[in-house]
Amino acid sequence: MGVLTVSIGLALLLCEGAAGLILNPGDYLNVEMVGDPILGAVPSVNARSHGFDSWGYRNRRVPATADIVAIGDSHTYGNTATMEDSWPYVVGRLTGRSVYNLGMGGYGPNQYYYLLKTKALQLKPRLIICGFYMGDDFDNAYLMTYGEDYWSGLRALKGVTVDMDTWNPEDREPHPSLFRRIRLWLSRHSVVYQIAAHASALGNLQGDVQIRNAHKINSLGTSLILPEKHIEEAFLPGRIRHRLDQNSATVQEGMRITFKLFSEMSDICKQNHIAFLVAIIPAKEMVFGEYYEQHPELPLSDDVIQTSVNGLLAEKKTVRFLTDSGISYVDTLPALKRSVEQRLYAASAGDMHPNKNGYRVIGEAIAEALKETSTTRR
């Protein structure tokens, strides 16, 4: 028995070593984050030695210069896809430009602004693209501003403080089980584990089963199954609906903060002779909301529809602000809606990020906008 255990352990180590040589660990491993008084959290030193660059971001290295720098959250980072399949790298391939990706899960407008000043400018780009996710970026702006003292100068509400510690929630559990601790460690250190759990045929099959049974698995989830349109998607509208509620004082405050930061980012770019573009990335419900309007009998259809309506109203206000401010933007929603039959999102009932197909469509929409407007030209 002991010999068998040792043999299995050695085999796994060999597989892990081979995977690390053949594959890019940054395509599979989760980023370990540590607290930071300005950004809320930053990649740990450990993360920087496991497939991420010396700044801790999802690139093979930090270059001396880059034609394009992309800043954003997990939708820019490329959750559920490889580094090369994230939309910034799609844009790079389509435009023939070198790209550096400053996307990081959990980040929002405050972090975008700070990273533009402290990181992006160092790379002397011709263009900075801010990937703005409609689903929670307004909420993130509010939470960062009222959760970290560094951003207190942006506050308009008096006597308000919030908890912004949203990274690595598993690390803050008082008594996590041994199994959970092992699984968390493996997700940050083992490429083989991540492939087996998420990127294998078994993981995809499990995802498809989850989608078809989303409401049974989670009362807050719902599924949209339309075989004739090749649509099989799951949703968790409760996560997003209130973050886009146009009657919410905190959402309104988050929008005010976001627009102020966009103005300052645009001004910084102008001062440095850099083009600035906001790429609007919709919440998933905004892409599929019209199908729920056609099928009101589906579980949580009202929530999905209301989330879509809230998102469209917020998007309209965002576009109006950007237009009035002379800030270039591209709305990726129309392209995603035209491509809904291409399975654009992760095969999961719990992860609402795009997959490689979704990021490709987003990247194509951005590249086409750059081609039409010649945004990258000085």
Report on the structure:
The protein is an alpha/beta fold and 378 residues long. The chain has a single domain, classed as SGNH hydrolase (Rossmann fold, 3-Layer(aba) Sandwich). The strands form three sheets. A five-stranded parallel sheet has the order 4-3-5-8-9, sandwiched between helices. Strands 1-2 form a two-stranded antiparallel sheet. Strands 6-7 form a two-stranded antiparallel ribbon. Helix 8 packs across helix 9 and helix 13 packs across helix 14. The longest helix has 25 residues. It is globular and about 55 Å long. The N and C termini lie far apart (68 Å). 43% of the residues are buried. The N terminus is likely disordered.
What is the N-to-C order of secondary-structure elements (H for helix, E for strand)? HEEHEHHEHEHHHHHEEHHEHHEHH
Number of strands: 9
CATH class: Alpha Beta
CATH superfamily: SGNH hydrolase
Q: Architecture, according to CATH? A: 3-Layer(aba) Sandwich
Tell me about the largest β-sheet. 5 strands, parallel
Shape: globular
Level of helix content? 40-55%
The value of Rg in angstroms is 21 Å
Spans with pLDDT under 50 lasting ≥5 residues? 3-9
Number of domains: 1
Structural class, from secondary structure content?
A: alpha/beta
